[in-house]
Amino acid sequence: MFSKTVATLRPSPIQVMAERTRQAQQAGHSVVDMTLGEPDFPTPEHIGEAAMRAIAEGQTRYTAINGTVQLREAIVRKLLRENGLIYTPADISVGCGGKQVIYQAFLATLNPGDEVLIPAPYWASYADIVSMNGGTLRPLLTSPETGYALQPETLEAAITLRTKWLVLNSPSNPSGTAYTAGQLLRFAEVLRKSANQRFFILVDDIYEHILYDGRKPATLASVAPDLAPRILTVNGVSKAYSMTGWRVGYACGPRALIEAMTKIQMQINSHTSSVSQAAAVAALDGPQDEVARRCGIFQARRDFLLQQFAAIDGLRTPTPEGAFYLFPDVRAFIGRTTPNGSKVDDDVALAAYLLEQGVAVVPGSGFGMPGFLRLSYATSDAQLALAADRMAVALGALQ
């Protein structure tokens, strides 16, 4: 009855755990929800006011497929001001969130047999978007010892004539790994000398403003401008400006690729909300001090959890450089037994056990790394303290 594509799709591990959490909470259980990657702050006031003005002024009709001129011009200004990148509005594609932009890029380019290289752990949706569009995922393994950072030699060994895309997400969901300009330059050296010079590089910068310890954003097209004709830089307003529900993502890159993506979007949803686009202009052109303030709060939350987790025997948690996730190594707890006699066979079982103990997390197997967990700390200090206490007790009870 249904297509082969639908039959191969797996439920999002993030949404699966989020739904189980909602069910547990509705049943009256106290659960600290650390599943969703969504800032717990409201959208800044001036952005909401811009949206209301847009409605009052009648900006509620169809827009250009690839976004209003006003928004694409704001994106051009942002890219120049913050990233040193020079693009024109014709080089920009605006969609309903970064996910749609990525989907359209893969749909426009992938054929059966094409390979997509993605460092693991990776955002769970990458894998399914690749498979939905006929591609083959080639995970590039990383380790907690290197902070989950891709190594240049691993990248070099993985590139073949079948490679169609390399995906670099920095800071990363789920690991929080953020690449410096120096690290990106080493990747660029590998890319320049590769026998395959025909594949694209997707640079997902959606978390670029959530960086810690004084780090500055670095993006591949800026540090290696000679590679820009092959780079699609993806970003959006969801994470930095707490606008997840507004659904505005964008990409800049090779004109021919942008035009192909726009042709696809024409037949999918025409464009994202005109009101959301007006709000995104206000986000990009408006004051940025609140973004920096919230980043400081996220860093304090990270530091608190790292301190608490360091006291839990067997839990190894690399320090993330950005985003708002921890990705602890929990392999020491696999194979143990819960107080009620159940065996913890894998990270999925461990996540289920922790949910029973009042902490909702996502198993790392959904991100391409079994034996790990992803925890979002985009929640209140009080909830994080409660989660740390519950995890210490729950993990300490495993035999």
TrEMBL record:
Superkingdom of origin organism: Bacteria
Q: Which GO MF terms are attached to this record? A: pyridoxal phosphate binding; transaminase activity
Domain Aminotransferase class I/classII large positions: 31-390
UniProt keyword list:
Aminotransferase, Pyridoxal phosphate, Transferase
Nucleotide-binding among the record's keywords? no
Query: Which cofactors are reported in the record for this sequence?
Result: pyridoxal 5'-phosphate
* EC number(s) on file: 2.6.1.-
The record's annotation in PROSITE patterns points to: AA_TRANSFER_CLASS_1
- Which terms does the UniProt entry file under GO BP? amino acid metabolic process
InterPro entries reported for this sequence: Aminotransferase_I/II_large, AspAT/PAT-like, NHTrfase_class1_PyrdxlP-BS, PyrdxlP-dep_Trfase, PyrdxlP-dep_Trfase_major, PyrdxlP-dep_Trfase_small
Pfam families this protein is in? Answer: Aminotran_1_2 (PF00155)
The family line of this record is: Belongs to the class-I pyridoxal-phosphate-dependent aminotransferase family.
State what protein this is by name. Answer: Aminotransferase
Taxonomic path: Bacteria, Pseudomonadati, Pseudomonadota, Betaproteobacteria, Burkholderiales
